[in-house]
Amino acid sequence: FFVVEDHILHTTQGLVNRAYIDELWEMALSKTIAALRTHSSYCSDPSLVLDLKNLIVLFADTLQGYGFPVNQLFDMLLEIQDQYSETLLKKWAGVFRNILDSDNYSPIPVSNEEVYKKIVGQFPFQDAELEKQPFPKKFPFSEFVPKVYSQIKEFIHACLKFSEDLHLSSTEVDDMIRKSTNLLLTRTLSNCLQNVIKRKNVGLTELVQIIINTTHLEKSCKFLEEFITNITNVLPETVHTTKLYGTTTFKDARHAAEEEIYTNLNQKIDQFLQLADYDWMALEPGSRASDYLVDLIGFLRSTFAVFTHLPGQADVHSTMSGKVAQTACMSACKHLSTSLLQLLLEAEVRQLTLGALHQFNLDVEECEQFARSGPVPGFQGDTLQLAFIDLRQV
């Protein structure tokens, strides 16, 4: 309609004038923008939002070529861009949920060079020691690491699609991608990871694997920075460049998994302690530690063997794995010591025999023996035994 009106204006005299067309355009533009705002707000499919954006760009560029002012249309596209980002975040929340729910939380086995190269191609991982090992071998992380990393890159590409043909500077495009990616990491992916960690049926081996996985994803953040830089050609050192906050997301998830390990261990100890059935009036002690305690110590030994699967490279990972294992072990021993002390001192125990006390002493000795055996490497001297010192004194 406006192309025809413009043609009439330039090829005839007296039929239309510039003021009439400008007034008509202003009215049509305001109604068009209002309608687009209303209808686009209901759109939850990112591909439809992208199609809408492409039509608006085509419309705006065409009419701009005929001299019509279209700045308001491009301003509105920046509003729709925020909405597009939100629809992407919702879509990727589902993608991440599916990846995390379907993961087996076990190191990825590789049987040949082809599979090894495929995974290294998906995720930036280098380990000279692992490369030297013969096949079959295992990556330290599970499937969700390369899958999540690939999906973050897919999200970045999806963000880039909207910025095409918007006449934005490379700095503006870079800023838009980084801000959207930060939301993906700190909000969407972070929530998905936290939900997995807080699940009722999550096991200790899964939590240990999550610690390993998030450690490797944290290390990969610098490669995501490079990936964005290669797309936008804006160096990360440039003033006003937004930094990616992925390291924070993965650190927070790792700390949450660690706390969940400590909590789960204490809950398991409590379950075993519920089986404790001391006869405080027994005349003679048994010949060995109580069955429930022997089972509990066996559980703790097998549990701390799991921690040997934590990242063990000779760098910050080994320090991290050692600290998690040591903290978990010390926390478990202190909790066990406190719980046993409460059993001995609880109000219902009005009196006890020497035989009962000897039986309880056998159980305390079993705990002390466990602490002396070094279930987790890295403790100095009798540090772990000190967890039972108060119990021993009583």
Automatic annotation (TrEMBL):
Domain Exocyst complex subunit EXOC6/Sec15 C-terminal: residue ranges: 72-394
Any one Gene Ontology BP term: Golgi to plasma membrane transport
Keyword Transport: yes
Keyword Cell wall biogenesis/degradation attributed: no
InterPro entries attached to this UniProt entry: EXOC6/Sec15, EXOC6/Sec15_C, EXOC6/Sec15_C_dom1, EXOC6PINT-1/Sec15/Tip20_C_dom2
Protein keywords: Exocytosis, Transport
Gene Ontology CC terms, in alphabetical order: exocyst; plasma membrane
Gene3D superfamilies, sorted: Dsl1p vesicle tethering complex, Tip20p subunit, domain D, Exocyst complex subunit Sec15 C-terminal domain, N-terminal subdomain
Pfam families to which the protein is assigned, alphabetical: Sec15_C (PF04091)
Family per similarity comment: Belongs to the SEC15 family.
Protein name: EXC6B protein
The organism of origin for this protein: Panurus biarmicus
